[in-house]
Fold this protein.
Amino acid sequence: MEHFDGEHPGRGSKVWLVCNQASGSNDEAAVQAVVEALTAAGFDLDRVLRFPDEPAPHAAELDASGVHMLCVFGGDGTTHSVVTSAWEWGGSVLVLPGGTMNMLSKRMHGDVPAPEIIAKLGHGPVRTDRPCVIRSRHGIGLTGALAGPGTVWNEVREAMRAVNILEFVSTAREAISQSASGAKVMCADIDCGRDEGYAAITVTPHDDGLEANGYYAESLADYAGQGIALLNRDFRDGPHDELGRHKRLRLVCPTGEPMGLLIDGEPFDGGEEEIFELSACKVDLVTTKELDG
């Protein structure tokens, strides 16, 4: 990670908070705990925005209001919208875990609750990083991309979050079917896994490259027998082929069909070929990992 030594927000700095109560762990009590933590850490909380009813602020709006730090408390989709809206802004963005997976927050802080992250900021200088991200024709991916018929498992997760049992059963059945018979995806141009392709390939950004992992239909179908365990697990934790780390990754559908595609958990219309490249984040993200101890 690249570190920056310029001035960063500290106690007394003006802060805006963007929250989304539709996210996984983001109810009114959780939002209030974040508000209280920011105040206790000495920040000047000037405004709370309720996304998506209120749009994510852009750099010009933040500058015009004299904001030093923008906090986002929501899931990975909300975080994507807020961070990319603030792209190339001169202030700092604090990503807090307020959703189901919280992948970017874990990258910047570890698996730490939001109030604890904020409390660390009150005890010393605020550090920021610009971690590597994914660049594609669809835009920036902060946490990762998922390609292939296995993307239908995202609908299973949404049904679980909505506690819709009938829809959960239906989407799980559909996910198993599509994982087994849907058009596969494969890595092109490199010796990268199974020749027949995969039901799902994940692409995760790291500072030394894009990590690719391939999941075959049998491993996804295994989830059919796990029942309630699905509520607490992500299929990406399951058995997979490691496909290496790359500066540039080209995924193709051998049968020429459009591939299923998720970026930061949000669906996109994938083509028969998609190219992902390693790129630098264009806004400072607050990190607390080096403030431990």
